[in-house]
Design goal:
Length: 180
């Protein structure tokens, strides 16, 4: 799509450098979402920020065990688990947890959490499987990221998805919006 500007080599290099920084932050155990609830959930966030991804993962799982499956926090904790597993490089395990969750859930918070976890996993796996994320769905995700005050992660992931498809104008647009 023509956004009224073209991509320069410098912009692409800057975009690629930012994506590398994001990947490094993820490998270092950066937090990709909120904890599962209670003090274990908050401690899980602190652990993840301190680079203690395994400890954070354990806390999220323990906190989930204390919650009713009917609570949104219980459902949300699975996406936090997927993000932590992805950050720890345990992509096969993260894939199993994501696939066990089923299709994209109903409800804005869970849908957004699913999208981010799924796209983090795609990024860690090195690509988007064929026929999983069509143009309209990727556009919807980018649009949602643009509407949110805290849409930076989603916009960066959309930028990566567009770049992986060779759609550099859209990639740079999403990336620039994430920076603003």
């Amino acid at each position: 799509a023509d956004a009224g500007w073209t991509v320069s080599d410098a912009s692409m290099r800057e975009f690629e450098a930012e994506m590398d920084r994001q990947r490094e932050r993820g490998r270092a155990g950066g937090a990709f979402g909120e904890g599962a609830g209670g003090s274990d959930g908050f401690d899980a966030i602190a652990d993840a920020l301190d680079g203690k991804g395994e400890q954070a993962l354990d806390r999220v799982r323990r906190a989930r065990g204390k919650l009713s499956p009917r609570l949104i926090q219980h459902q949300f904790s699975y996406y936090t688990e997927i993000n932590l597993l992805t950050a720890l490089g345990r992509t096969k395990e993260a894939r199993v947890v994501l696939e066990a969750r089923g299709p994209v859930p109903v409800g804005e918070v869970l849908k957004l959490s699913y999208w981010i976890a799924q796209m983090h996993l795609f990024c860690a796996e090195g690509g988007i499987p064929n026929n999983v994320l069509d143009d309209a769905e990727l556009y919807d995700r980018m649009r949602k990221g643009l509407q949110m005050n805290a849409g930076r992660d989603l916009l960066l992931l959309c930028a990566w998805a567009y770049a992986s498809r060779g759609e550099h104008d859209e990639a740079v647009f999403a990336w620039r919006q994430a920076r603003d």
